[in-house]
Amino acid sequence: MAEIRPPRVNQTKTRNVPIAVTPEGFWCCPSPVAFQKTLKAQNPLNKPKPSSPPPKFTVQKEQAPITERKPTHIQSRPGIVSDDQRDFGSDTPGHSAPVAAERAPRPKIENLPRKVAIEFGEPGTSDMKVILLGRQGFCVKLSVHKNVLVENSRYIADKLSEQQSGSSSLEIEDCEDVEIYVEIVGLMYCKEIKQRLIKQNVSRVLRILKVAELFGFNSCMQSCLEYLEAVPWVGEEEEKVVSSVLRLQGEGIGVPPVLKRVSSDISKPHKDTLPQIIDLVLKSNEERGRREMKSTVLKLLRENNDLPSYAGSTDICNEALYSSCKSCLNSLLSLFRQAAEPGFADKPMNSKEPVVKQIPLEADNLLWLVEILADRQAAEEFALSWAGQLELASLHSKLPIVSRYHVSGITARLFVGIGRSELLPSKDTRQLLLQTWLEPLMNDYSWLQNGCRSFDRKVVEEGIGRTILTLPLEEQQSILLSWLGSFLKAGDKCPNLQRAFEVWWRRTFIRPYSEAQGNIFQDSSTTSPVIDLKKHPHE
């Protein structure tokens, strides 16, 4: 649509916009760019110039503009005002009052006179005028046909019925989105509203839907809902669409097709769906897809853990996870039994290869499940079950290290979880876990460092050390002295538990001496001389 700009003045201005007739016989809705450019170019609030006097108002004859005289004070009560109450037209622009007002200090926005006016439509063929008063002095006049608006707008029909029979104009104040108000009136002349929405984006259609609701324009609302039901929602659009549609639903407007995208009629659909998803991931033989989906599901479950409303679904999810853990454990034990058979190493490659490949896969599945359980603070039961896998631990040493070392990653993750307080197993469980699986972990440690991309040596060593230090002092001593012998032989191929060793050392050799000294000072009389330990370090 062509755009004609009048001179930039600070007085009240009216702007006629050329008409683009639609197949329905009415003017096209103005484009968003036209409104933005008009408001930016003509609104004096954007670039005030109090020092320079206002230029003279000039009228372009070929445009035949209609200049409005508006009082400085605007009614605070929003609503629609009849033509009998307001005078909104004059062919002669006024000068004296605006000049005096603009030289004074800037008043509040709501008290400013209307500065920008645009007119749409053919006054000669219309029988009604709608005046939209926006914020910051933006005013739009629409020459329309009363029968069209009454037929499409329940709100306008009700307001016209309240006015005198001879009234031919309506004024709508405090329009937050004048551009969309104008477009809504234009859409009342369209037979296929949905076709006009095809080129719009979701954000703009939501604006149209909001104003259409205010007008009671049901066919437009229905077209907006059909549009929203059909188009993709990207990023934050989903939350905006859902909130808008839920608001309409709360007011009794039917919107089920749109909401079906984000909600289900089936109660608790995740009860069967989550176990199915876990089962599909665990049984996948494609490495990349399995790895990526494990990461995705883990991330999504972590998001669910942060929702208070998700607490009621915890038992259902944990039940599915432990069912999968049991299945993986049974499978892993069966594979270990096959691989530990005396003649297994001599079998043909095509016979033993499936077993060799399936062991790390089952170990990785268990590690993933333990990760989920630890995030949900629900891994204590698995720690007890893993600590009791005595047969699996005894078969561990009979397998080649290249086939078995992935299993030690499960043990390492449990130690990390205990060190981080993600799980709180009992003392007996912690003791049994160390007794059953610490030695196999130390034997596989070198392979874990080099063969597992997610293995973090410092984190694992800290977890092992903290787990040991939760036991009684005598058991700490037994485990750490056993570790010391292995560490002095293997070096970097063994976990470095020096920090835990230092803590145990201080607990064993320094704390009793410090406590004894403290008791001596407490038992001494206040008059007794105080021994300076710095001067007598050997006493």
TrEMBL record:
Residues 43-103 are annotated as: Disordered. Keywords: Ubl conjugation pathway. InterPro entries: At3g05675-like, At3g05675-like_ankyrin, BTB/POZ_dom, SKP1/BTB/POZ_sf. Residues 141-229 form the BTB domain. Residues 273-511 form the At3g05675-like ankyrin-like domain. Gene3D superfamilies: Potassium Channel Kv1.1, Chain A. Pathway: Protein modification; protein ubiquitination. Pfam families: BTB (PF00651), BTB-POZ_ANK-like (PF25553). May act as a substrate-specific adapter of an E3 ubiquitin-protein ligase complex (CUL3-RBX1-BTB) which mediates the ubiquitination and subsequent proteasomal degradation of target proteins. This is BTB/POZ domain-containing protein At3g50780. It comes from Juglans regia (English walnut).
